[in-house]
Structure formats: structure tokens, C-alpha cells
Design a protein that fits this description.
The structure is a single chain. This protein is mainly alpha-helical and 362 residues long. It has one domain. Helices cover 67% and strands 2% of the residues. It has 15 helices and two strands. The protein has a two-stranded antiparallel sheet with strand order 1-2. Strand 1 (161-163) and strand 2 form a beta hairpin. Helix 8 (204-221) runs parallel beside helix 15 (337-360) and helix 12 packs across helix 13 (297-316). It is globular, with a radius of gyration of 20 Å.
């Protein structure tokens, strides 16, 4: 909004020329989202507590301490993230940019699905919300629409190709099937973050780290000079996603203030599904889908642990892990929650550095 309103006035007011720069608006977006989170956070938490007298339903088959320590904690804190992210993006981003709107569509669409899931869990007082098949169908529909949208914004043949990191010009052509690839990326990222969200601060910090990495990637991809120097695909307009991702970082940090152990609020599926979808959409828009699997490797490992557990249990009747996702396995082994969370954060940072390295190694 400010970009469209104030930049045309830069001829008469030199200060407004700053809005031309993505880096300036990205910083403003981050701070705005943080301020919105701090301002509305306490009010939203009080409202959620008054509406959710018993808090989020706790899995009876989960770690025993959760039934005591996390009982009564409200969920749907993802509403705070979405509010801060959306407001900040609309204020600071170039609203003529299609990539911004496509990414917001995915984020808010998956957020609405997560909200419905959280609402059903609260009203039914169990851990089953929207039926799994229904959730997958809705995710697929939103993901496919967004993938088609993003593909239409890009020039051919880049729009229908999958870039392979570490190689200069290696692209895998998918043709008209590429939107299906994009859909899988969006669904996978969304569900992976959702599975990781199980301990205080566990999902939000790796999400912030991944958003920071992709903010840099989006900026480089959207700059013809930097993209040429690094020999990565130049995508006109993709740099504007830096503003969106900076807003996501600010919203995530603001939420972490209230989600830090012991959490005053959980993000719920409202937050986890939308955050994963946002990262997936940005990965598709910047042609770094495989890099997302590296940067978000923690989410990938958590998801694989669930797949392995379910597959092996159905085949043999035995479990590979004491409990899945993986963070619950370490809880069952006696690790303290802060130990698990902080060590997983460290792993997320290492994987983020590995993902960044792929930009230079060609």
C-alpha cells in the first residue's frame, strides 16, 4: 500500500524514494509485524482463554506430562501470526505483484483450513478435527490453484521446469504437469510444519530461520545482477517476496514471545498449516523447491519419522520409534523439552546454512 501511495511522490519528497528499495520495505514489514503481534497478542490470548475454557485437547496417547503441564493452554494462536503477517504485507509490499498475492492466497487458504480443524477439535473436545481425506482434498485444491497461478506469472520454459541445486543449468522439464509438482510441494511443506508443531517453540523458530533464508533467496533471484553472478534463475518480480518473508519473520518472532516455554498459547493448525504453505509457495515462486527440502530438513525428518512409524507398524505390529513424530520419541526417552527444542533449533540452523551453500556451489 505505502509503495503505491508514496513512491509516486518521491519526485517532490526525496525521503519517499526509500520505498523503491525492497530492503527498506522488508525491514519495515518485519518491524510492523512484530509491533502488531506485541500489541494484539495479549488481547487475543485473553479472548482465546475466555472462549476455550479447557484449552487445546491433549492426546491421551502422548507423553504423560503433556496432560498436566499443557492442560488448559489455548490454541488458534496462528490467528495472531496471520493477522500480523497479512497487515504488514499489505502495508509494505507492492500490491501489483502477483507473487505476493499468490503466496498470501496459499497462506490464508491453508490458515482457514487449519482454523476449521482447530475449531472442530475444540467443539468436539478431541484431537480429531477435519477428516484427513477432506483436509487433503482442500489442501490439494488450494495448492493446485496457487501452483497454476504462480506458473502463469513466469516466462516459459522456466515456469514448468524444476531446478536442481548444485548444477548451473540442470532443469527437469515437467511441461503442463508442473502445477502438480507445485501442489505436492505446497502440501508437503504445510503438513511437515504441522507435524513438527508439538512442543513449545519447536515449529516457529525453524520456520523463522527458513523464512530468513528464503528472504535472501527471493531477493537474489529477483535481482538480475546477483542472479547472474550466482548463476541462478532470474525471476522478475520474485524479489518482492522478501517483503512478505520479512513480515513472516516479524510475525513469527512476535508469536514466539507468547509461545516461549511455558507457552501461553499454541499456534494450532491455524498457524502450522499456513506457515508451511507459505514456505512452499515461496519455494515454488523462486524455483527453489528442492532447496526447501534442505533448509526445512528438520520438517522433512519429522514427517519421515511418522511415515516410517505408520508403515512399519502396519507391516510388523512393532514400532521403530517410541512415539512419532520424532520429537516425541526423545520425550519418551527422557529428554527435557527445552533440550529437544534447542537441539532441534541448532539442527535447523545447520540445515539453513547448507541450503544457502547451494546458491554458491555450482
Amino acid at each position: 500500500m505505502l509503495y503505491g501511495l508514496l513512491l509516486p511522490l518521491s519526485g517532490s519528497v526525496h525521503f519517499f524514494n526509500l520505498f523503491r528499495y525492497i530492503t527498506f520495505r522488508a525491514g519495515g514489514a518485519c518491524m510492523t509485524a512484530l509491533i502488531v503481534s506485541f500489541w494484539f497478542g495479549p488481547k487475543l490470548i485473553r479472548m482465546l482463554k475466555s472462549m476455550q475454557r479447557h484449552g487445546q485437547p491433549i492426546r491421551l496417547d502422548g507423553p504423560e506430562r503433556h496432560l498436566i503441564e499443557k492442560k488448559g493452554t489455548p490454541t488458534m494462536g496462528g490467528v495472531l501470526i496471520l493477522m500480523a503477517l497479512s497487515v504488514s504485507t499489505l502495508i509494505w509490499a507492492d500490491l501489483d505483484n502477483g507473487y505476493v498475492w499468490a503466496t498470501l492466497f496459499v497462506t490464508l487458504g491453508y490458515g482457514a483450513l487449519g482454523f476449521a480443524d482447530d475449531y472442530l477439535k475444540l467443539t468436539k473436545r478431541n484431537t480429531k478435527g477435519v477428516p484427513g481425506r477432506v483436509k487433503l482434498v482442500v489442501q490439494a485444491g488450494i495448492g493446485l490453484l496457487a501452483a497454476v497461478w504462480i506458473t502463469a506469472l513466469m516466462p516459459a520454459p522456466l515456469s514448468t521446469e524444476l531446478a536442481v541445486p548444485l548444477f548451473k543449468n540442470l532443469m527437469i522439464p515437467f511441461g503442463f504437469l508442473f502445477p502438480l509438482v507445485g501442489m505436492v510441494v505446497l502440501m508437503g511443506a504445510s503438513n511437515s510444519v504441522n507435524l513438527t508443531d508439538g512442543l513449545d517453540g519447536l515449529a516457529i523458530v525453524p520456520t523463522i530461520i527458513a523464512a530468513g533464508v528464503f528472504a535472501l533467496i527471493a531477493y537474489l533471484v529477483g535481482n538480475r545482477i546477483f542472479a547472474g553472478y550466482l548463476q541462478i534463475n532470474f525471476i522478475s518480480g520474485a524479489g518482492e517476496l522478501t517483503v512478505f518473508l520479512s513480515a513472516l519473520m516479524g510475525a513469527g518472532l512476535g508469536f514466539l514471545w507468547f509461545n516461549a516455554p511455558p507457552a501461553a498459547v499454541f499456534m494450532g493448525d491455524t498457524g502450522s498449516l499456513s506457515l508451511g504453505g507459505a514456505l512452499g509457495a515461496v519455494a515454488v515462486a523462486t524455483k527453489n523447491e528442492i532447496v526447501l527440502a534442505i533448509v526445512g530438513g528438520l520438517f522433512v525428518v519429522e514427517t519421515i519419522s511418522v511415515i516410517v512409524q505408520v508403515f512399519w507398524y502396519k507391516r510388523t505390529g512393532r514400532r521403530v520409534f517410541l512415539m512419532a513424530p520424532l520429537h516425541h520419541h526423545f520425550e519418551k526417552k527422557g529428554w527435557a523439552e527445552p533440550t529437544i527444542v534447542i537441539r532441534f533449533w541448532i539442527i535447523a540452523m545447520i540445515l539453513a546454512l547448507a541450503g544457502l551453500a547451494t546458491l554458491k556451489i555450482r
